[in-house]
């Protein structure tokens, strides 16, 4: 399995090659497109230096000066070789099987979830809501994320099938726009102002408490609406396929609630759909902003090489059993590893984590880590600075 080891972004506004060494790269699957971009037709603190409180401006001057671009490329090449050895020595079960099993277990939990909703007692009913909510987010976040990176299989054909299933049928989004905005833009231009700076997650007209605690409840409604708006940017065949998959996914959920769970009215079924689909919407939004916003931002023509860009602009959160299962390691505790090697599965990102963290620390490069609670307090305290005003561009002192 080839790993990325090159700098992907060449110039602001220039379209990025969607593959590196034949393997595609990713971000939050539901990200709306960046303003002014269209998808091609048819187709997230130890590294913040010891004793330093994590804040919105991680100083690049803290990075040990390198010996120029060639030195930085050599660092990425050396790290890629270390990771490649681990990948080659890993079994299919480690590379793909663990994550496929998690997704399969989620499917097997669906009948229990729908049947629990038949109960008139509070405990079983709430158990059904919890089960369906966790399953929904496992399929739509973890499944879509892995499928977008073709990390579920080494076959491109099957990868396309899984992408359509998880992104369009389960998540009600279009594959072309999801991969373009996440894989090509966010991963290709991580923390580059105007491109991969996560600005699509910002809603400056909302105050901090509405954005952080109320607005996430609207994610299940906004996702298909955004997707429908983006269909004009893809070929008619892809748009028709997306519409069919979206309708099938929604109708199957609705039909099962009426005929298996026993809901008596369409409105009660729709409310239950909203409840289960927004169960983990808060951490979903939080994770997407915690792991990039508040870290260094760069201009497209003055950004560091790949290894510095990812070590500076990406942050890991601690392991969490619920979020690890529902979102995957690559979106939680191994986000740095994921941005360096996005074609790897969640389980492989977890496996290479000790190697990546040790290597970056040995080379005196940042390896950003912070807790969920710490980031939440930071964003509530500095919401205006981080989420309303334009982020400052970090000067590349001591890097280039």
Report on the structure:
It is a single chain. The chain has one domain. Helix content is 54%, strand content 2%. It contains 16 helices and 4 strands. The chain has helices at residues 69-88, 92-116, 122-148, 156-170, 175-186, 208-214, 219-230, 236-259, 266-277, 281-290, 306-313, 321-326, 335-340, 346-362, 372-381, 383-388, and strands spanning 19-20, 23-24, 315-316, 368-369. The protein has a two-stranded antiparallel ribbon. The two termini are 31 Å apart.
Give the topology.
Elements: E1 19-20, E2 23-24, H1 69-88, H2 92-116, H3 122-148, H4 156-170, H5 175-186, H6 208-214, H7 219-230, H8 236-259, H9 266-277, H10 281-290, H11 306-313, E3 315-316, H12 321-326, H13 335-340, H14 346-362, E4 368-369, H15 372-381, H16 383-388
Parallel strand pairs: 3-4
Antiparallel strand pairs: 1-2
Helix pairs in contact: 1-14, 2-3, 3-4, 3-9, 4-8, 8-9
